[in-house]
Design brief:
Order of helices and strands: HHEEHHHHHH
Structural class: mainly alpha
Distance between the termini: 43 Å
Number of strands: 2
Strand content: under 5%
Shape: globular
């Protein structure tokens, strides 16, 4: 029998915790989670143009295109619009600050340099 890695056990625990919460209140459980490849919290789903928290979850489960649509909707919100200009200007630190907040250097100090490196590798 294959043993699960720490990461797999953690992911399974998170999924089980989500299912338990969803049994109590599905919409609240979905709103409390970050969704998609860009980890967008679903709490303010109406600001992103979605009609329900479930619409966000379903969109992210459909395809990577759904993840991208959610990310774009997130960036178009009033608080995140400055991140779009930073992306256009390839200002990776500016984008990181606008997208993740001012504490990114503490929580993920390589974020901006990783953005720059990945852009250069895949442009």
């Amino acid at each position: 029998e294959k043993k699960l890695s720490y990461e797999d056990r953690h992911e399974l625990f998170q999924y089980e915790r989500f299912v338990k919460a969803a049994l109590l209140d599905k919409d609240a459980a979905i709103r409390a989670c970050s969704w998609g490849a860009f980890q967008v919290i679903a709490k303010p789903y109406t600001e992103f143009g979605y009609s329900s928290p479930a619409e966000i979850a379903n969109t992210c489960m459909e395809s990577i295109d759904g993840h991208c649509r959610l990310f774009v909707a997130f960036l178009k919100t009033k608080d995140k619009k400055p991140a779009i200009a930073a992306l256009y200007n390839k200002d990776w630190e500016g984008f990181t600050s606008k997208y993740n907040g001012g504490g990114w250097r503490t929580t993920n100090p390589d974020y901006a340099s990783n953005m720059k490196r990945n852009y250069e590798n895949f442009k």
